[in-house]
Design goal:
18% strand; alpha/beta; two-stranded parallel sheet; binds nicotinamide-adenine-dinucleotide; 312 residues; 13 strands; Rossmann fold; 2 domains; 12 helices
Length: 312
């Protein structure tokens, strides 16, 4: 297949593009390189690369020519970055997705897989111990609101035009190529630098951490599914942030202390006490669900990202 990955030079996009290339697909990447280029040399050499903004209608039209599938991942993210840039965050989401939809119509693209987020559940009540796609969502940030808007827009586009759409709700993906906007690499970095590990709030808030390889496997298995769907990709396990900090401290054998800070005001909307997802729907659609245990995933990325530390 010919597949366009917007945001393909980012954390998830670069891992996805590598896997798609290795599976023999023809891959096109469109990325502004806002966060640098995380594609490895081999993959970069094999993809057709468009450097630019997903808000450019012309560029998206050009990049998606002849494509069967679009993975639409380009976005502004990171709690502090989004809090400081709410308008740009929404702009990139809304205009970017509109361009992807319009280009898919013009170029007869059959499948759009869109990167939504578990962040849209926000304070939704957790039913039967995990968030399913049927739970009433409660988006509160510019980022989450725009993601939810796009989910509805894509679903209506399916109703009107018949294009196959999947909005994927990712749950705290972690793995190599991730930068320290996110909690896992930030804790690793603090341990490596011998600094305190800084946890916002009590540390008792929980999240569901999903390993990158499992996430990519699930994304690939969703290619070719017809209809309109919203699908969680979750590990179905709940870890509190202080446990995560202790685990990374133990893996790195760091002497760092774990310190607890009051979250800055701008982070309040993101502060959710519990988040754990169900991957039952994913399993029904693909016969696959993520299964890498957090400890195992952290150990793997430590070995890959920090080979020097391992030798010592
Ligand atoms: N990482 C997670 O845990 C997680 C969780 C939920 C949802 N998501 C979603 O998954 C997608 C990928 O996330 P990621 O973790 O790889 O983030 P990332 O920041 O590493 O990747 C996003 C990519 O989009 C590019 N980009 C940003 N603005 C752009 C623009 N205007 N035009 C073109 N490219 C632009 C960036 O340069 C970057 O390479 C995003 O849509 C994100 O909202 C990620």
């Amino acid at each position: 297949m010919k597949i366009l990955v917007t945001g393909g030079a980012g954390f998830i996009g670069s891992n996805l593009s590598r896997k798609l290339v290795n599976e023999g697909h023809e891959v096109v990447v469109l990325d502004s390189l806002l966060r640098g280029n995380k594609l490895d040399k081999d993959t970069f050499a094999k993809v057709k690369f468009f450097k630019g903004d997903v808000r450019s209608k012309q560029l998206v039209l050009e990049a998606s020519k002849g494509c069967d599938v679009i993975f639409h991942l380009a976005a502004v993210l990171g709690v502090d970055i989004v809090a400081d840039n709410p308008v740009e965050t929404m702009d990139v989401e809304v205009i970017g997705t509109r361009n992807v939809v319009e280009a898919s119509e013009t170029n007869n693209v059959k499948y759009i897989l869109y990167a939504s987020t578990s962040g849209i559940y926000s304070h939704s009540a957790i039913v039967k111990n995990a968030l399913t796609e049927e739970v009433l969502v409660d988006p509160r940030t510019s980022y989450a609101m725009a993601k939810r808007y796009n989910e509805i827009y894509l679903a209506s586009h399916h109703e009107e035009r018949g294009i196959n759409v999947i909005s994927i709700r990712f749950f705290n993906v972690y793995g190599w190529n991730q930068d320290n906007r996110m909690v896992v690499p930030r804790f690793f970095e603090q341990c490596e630098d011998g600094e305190d590990i800084t946890v916002f709030g009590s540390g008792e808030q929980t999240r569901d951490f999903t390993y990158i390889e499992d996430t990519i496997e699930a994304c690939c298995k969703l290619i070719g599914i017809k209809g309109s769907h919203i699908v969680n990709i979750a590990n179905e396990s709940e870890w509190c942030i202080s446990e995560l900090a202790s685990e990374i401290k133990s893996i790195t054998k760091a002497k760092s202390n774990i310190t607890y800070l009051d979250a800055p005001k701008k982070r309040y909307d993101y502060e959710v006490e519990r988040r754990v997802g169900s991957s039952e729907k994913l399993f029904k659609l693909t016969n696959y669900k993520p299964d890498t245990e957090l400890r195992e995933g952290l150990q793997k990325i430590y070995e890959i990202n920090y080979p020097k530390a391992i030798k010592n």
